[in-house]
Fold this sequence. Notes:
- With 357 residues, the chain is α+β, with helices and mostly antiparallel strands.
- The protein has 14 helices and ten strands.
- The protein has helices at 5-15, 53-72, 104-111, 130-138, 156-175, 177-185, 191-197, 210-219, 222-230, 233-246, 261-280, 290-300, 307-322, 352-355; strands spanning 26-31, 34-39, 75-81, 90-98, 149-153, 187-188, 201-202, 250-256, 284-287, 330-338.
- Helix 1 runs antiparallel to helix 2 (53-72), helix 2 (53-72) packs across helix 3 and helix 5 (156-175) runs antiparallel to helix 13 (307-322).
- The longest helix has 20 residues, at 53-72.
- The protein is globular.
- The termini are close together.
- 45% of the residues are buried.
- The structure holds flavin mononucleotide (FMN).
- Flavin mononucleotide is lined by residues 18-22, 54, 57-58, 61, 117-118, 120, 286-290, 346-347.
Amino acid sequence: MNIVPHITAILExxxxxxxxxxxxxWKFAVNGNTIELFNDEASDTSLYxxxxxxxxxxxxxxxxxxxxxxxxxxxxxxxxxxxxxxxxVHVASITLAPGIVASPKxxxxxxxxxxxxxxxxxxxxxxxxxxxxxxxxxxxxxxxRYGLVYQxxxxxxxxxxxxxxxxxxxxxxxxxxxxxxxxxxxLTWSKEEDAKKKVGFFIRTLELPLPVRALFKLxxxxxxxxxxxxLGFPAxxxxxxxxxxxSAAEFGILSMPGDTAQDFIWTGRALQRIWLTATAxxxxxxxxxxxxxxxxxxxxxxxxFSSQERELILNQIESLYSMLTHKRSVVxxxxxAGYGPLPSARATxxxxxxxxx
Length: 357
Ligand SMILES: Cc1cc2nc3c(=O)[nH]c(=O)nc-3n(C[C@H](O)[C@H](O)[C@H](O)COP(=O)(O)O)c2cc1C
């Protein structure tokens, strides 16, 4: 397809958005100055993606990248969510019109779109520079009109609790056969394999210590995992990961008034604005959403979990909600942020041709 350069630049920016397990659930069609965005439902069929909520966050982040790229190129982007009533796959129409003047903020955010990455390394506990933290808050100014609340959690005891909420995901994931199989079938073991598959987790991005990486290779086989479950290994992983997650300056909790597709799309847009701003200031980030998304799935599909797994998740969600300042909100995302080393590796992306329809 012949696409004009400014649209290509905008689509290339969309491809760089984050997505659960790097599923990249976006597909695009271009019609003159309008980009149509579709949810590729087949790209993420995991329990984490109950009612495509994870995909909607990713698609929201992709929309935000497109708006930022458009503004940086002096185009105004008008986004219409779900333009065809009843068609939930057609997520947005983005219409571009020339003529606006790019702000320094747009230029700054656009400049770091390819640099932003999930960083799963331990961070230092050094507090964020107040000016950087204020910029992250300012990044989502105006989104409260859609009901978005960005709550910063900086107190150490509360961070410890949220780290446990985050890490309980791994405890459940390693003992639930369906989650285990999804995770290990989406793990790639070499740069070559990752470059070929382009989706899922490249092992080096998980930042596992070498002995744990070797164990993971064994645990990919369910009968071996069953043996490790009997030894209590999932709880050991939870404890180790909770310690890593607690090594952060702070946690961020995003919440919305409801749990509609729009609520998750706005969450993705907000997450991306905060993440790009953090990136511009050398702040590392990692979303920690597993327990939140598993809770949605366990409420909607209780049979997919054992009663012990449901209880583990529920206890952590209660702990999370007990810390909320906005009591009637739905938590749609959580992340940790802080200073630290760069990640060991980056996730691969589909090419634009592979996502055009
Ligand atoms: C909705 C959503 C949920 C995510 N949840 C997690 C998570 O719980 N833990 C994690 O380490 N990364 C999480 N991520 C990050 C993705 O794994 C990551 O974006 C993807 O692998 C691509 O890598 P990149 O962000 O470095 O480009 C999440 C991303 C999105 C959009």
